[in-house]
């Protein structure tokens, strides 16, 4: 009955813990390294552990183990003397009238001990029930809310979908609700749109930078940096539509711009200066490497008027032509607003 038991290796040095502290963001699965050989410990000195089994020990299973020989040592939390793994074996030893039992000790805190208890009970012995696993997932989410659904699922033997349902049901506050820690221990944002925006800004400022440098500066993966650069080169938004936050602000429409201008009785809102926009735009790979992108920049160069240029231009218009030129300016402004509306609809 113990042929499928993986030998437990026990951490013997508390300075080299393998579990994440509550404030840390690692997500390693419970691992116990080999340490000192098992020692015989008085059964009376041991306490029941924080077992993931909601119904406690099974008397039938205890009877089976009491008739077995050469059972593996139990695992005990040294600081509390509570049993992490092996309560059935402990009950069986008592039933046989033994006074001592072979023990391997684990160094770590209570949360780490619980993780190890769940891991050990999943790997061997009497299987945990679905209710046991769900209760364990709830406990782990409370201890380590930054863990991803997949990391918790791997630790409890549940599906990521079930863990996600438990997370929503518990409404657990997280110290960093914007991140999740995956099974590989890497930190990933729940909302990746911010990282993609940062990557697009880095690419705009450093269009020739290697992907690895872009990814490191923006805090995203190399794959994400590559996708952002390809989207920019194709003239698309760096954040796919399905990945944008539901509450992301959309640019104001051209109709709203007209309303604002009318309310201000002809006073335009604070403008964006073309030279500052041009500097970043021309460095964007989507513009820099595209013929139509470069043509667009040259076209805007000849059609944008900076406020500082108005004085000389207005003085150059003869008085009897000013009304006609004003109407022409309004027509051009309307064309620009239609252009802006078309851009916003395609954004």
Helices, strands, pairings?
Blueprint (H helix, E strand, L loop, with lengths): L38 E4 L16 H8 L7 E4 L4 E4 L1 H9 L4 E7 L3 H14 L6 H14 L5 H8 L3 H11 L8 E3 L5 E3 L3 H13 L5 H8 L3 H12 L20 H10 L10 H8 L3 H4 L2 H11 L8 H7 L5 H25 L1
Parallel strand pairs: 2-4
Antiparallel strand pairs: 1-4, 2-3, 5-6
Helix pairs in contact: 1-2, 3-4, 4-5, 4-6, 5-6, 7-8, 7-9, 8-9, 10-15
InterPro entries: ParB/Sulfiredoxin_sf (IPR036086), ParB_N (IPR003115)
Protein name: ParB-like N-terminal domain-containing protein
Organism: Phytohabitans houttuyneae
User: What structural category arises from helix and sheet content?
Assistant: alpha+beta
The largest pleated sheet is described as: 4 strands, mixed
On the 0 to 100 scale, the average pLDDT is 75
Query: Which of globular, elongated, flat, extended, rod-shaped describes the shape?
Result: rod-shaped
Region (Disordered): 225-257
Protein name: ParB-like N-terminal domain-containing protein
InterPro entries: ParB/Sulfiredoxin_sf, ParB_N
Domain ParB-like N-terminal: 39-122
